[in-house]
Amino acid sequence: MRVLVIGAGVGGLATAQGLLDHGHEVRVFEKAPALRTTGAAFTLWSNGTGILGELGVSLDRLGGPVDVLEQRSSDGRRLLTIEVARAARHFGHPHVSLPRRRLLERLAGGLPGGTVAFGRDCTAIGQEDGHAWAGFGGTTVTGDVLVGADGHHSIVRETLWGAGLARPSGWATWQGLGEVPVGVASSRTGLMIVGREGLCGLMPAGDGLLQWWFDLRWMPGEPVPASPIADLHRRFGHWASPVPEVLAAVDEADAAFFPHHRHRVPRTWGEGRITLAGDAAHTMPPTVAQGANQALEDAWALVDALKDLGVRDVPGALRRYERTRSRRAALVSRVAGTEYTNRYRPRLSRLAPDALVSRAYTRWLGLVSGYLPGSATSRPGTR
After folding, report:
1. End-to-end CA, the chain
2. Closest C-alpha among 110, 7, 3, 1 to residue 52
3. CA Rg, the chain, in Å?
């Protein structure tokens, strides 16, 4: 089959790799003039790293391993420690935090030359006479399947569902990635520091790099500060170490801003020979760090639905893919939409035993993944 993929993000490139491996003809169309290098870093949990391994995408020398997540209060008290390495052992796949651009480079580098067409802004999509088509301002490309993997502002989703369905959650993030001289950068521990002003997250991303982010309350219409780092100093500068040291080491050029959005994930999210993947299908806040992982879950499930070159009922195969993915994606979206990690509840956090929360995290990964073998609720050692 000939498959058109709109968007060269994680989900789009992974989908292309998997479908090419099964003999399909795939073209990826990306609006940007080159591979996108924006965005800081993200964490791939066992479901994401496992799927990449199945696709033949090596993570050698990419990023830094994550074994522990530690929650602290803004005054420096330890509130909670989650041994996420337990889930990595249970499922047999590691947890890695890595720069977004490095993974995109690795994914794109594994595709045959000419698979990705850059500078192609999709302006319209449709289907007729047993094929799907995408318009690019004067030219039209046709295929047997069209996959909208074009992110939060998806033209494919807007055409299928209408505009304005994603709503602001009431929070936003300032984030960056760089060489920040604090101990976290060379560790295997991620920190989530929470206070009344919001949350500061710190995650080692390999090669001495640190992913840092600050979540704070924000709604559309509120002005974005001309000097974001100065504003972050005002809000968070009085917090305990290492927050002041991080703020002292970054500058305005390091900071990127993005508001959090969410929408209800429907049971089916496509029509006919058109479907969605990644943020186009399930925009969610980054609260549970599953965005890239869920995009990879989409790619894995979609490839599985279409891997048989003899598929006759393409629309039926796409609807089965969507139903397979929608329940888990909707669960992740609902939990992420609560922004629960940003809420300052130190007494509640300190009541939860670390061992119990570590077991619960393993169970959570089993619940939200269709790739990981079986549900964590039914595997040995998770009770």
Report:
1. 45
2. 110
3. 21
The residues near 67 (Cβ < 8 Å, ≥ 6 apart) are 83, 84, 85, 88, 95, 188, 189
Positive or negative CA dihedral for 137, 143, 146, 149?
Answer: negative
Dihedral pair phi/psi, residue 168, rounded to 5°: -65, 145
Query: Tokens representing 72?
Result: 């602290």
What φ, ψ does residue 188 adopt, rounded to 5°?
A: -120, 25
Cβ-contact 287, 172 below 8 angstroms: no
Cβ atoms of 345 and 337 closer than 8 Å = no
Surface-to-core class of residue 231, CB atoms within 10 Å of its CB (0-12 exposed, 13-18 middle, 19+ buried): middle
Number of neighbours of residue 313 by Cβ within 10 angstroms: 9
Classify residue 378 as exposed, middle or buried by CB count within 10 Å of its CB (0-12, 13-18, 19+).
Answer: exposed
**Structural domains of the chain ordered from first start:** 2-166+262-378 (3.50.50.60)
Per-residue pLDDT of the chain (383 residues; tens, 9 = 90+): 999 999 999 999 999 999 999 999 999 999 999 998 777 999 999 999 999 999 999 999 999 999 999 999 999 999 999 999 999 999 999 999 999 999 999 999 999 999 999 999 999 999 998 999 999 998 999 999 999 999 999 999 999 999 878 899 999 999 999 999 999 999 999 999 999 999 999 999 999 999 999 999 999 999 999 999 999 999 999 999 999 999 999 989 889 999 999 999 999 999 999 999 999 999 999 999 999 999 999 999 999 999 987 778 999 999 999 999 999 999 999 999 999 898 888 777 777 899 999 999 999 999 999 999 753 333 333 33
pTM of the model: 0.94
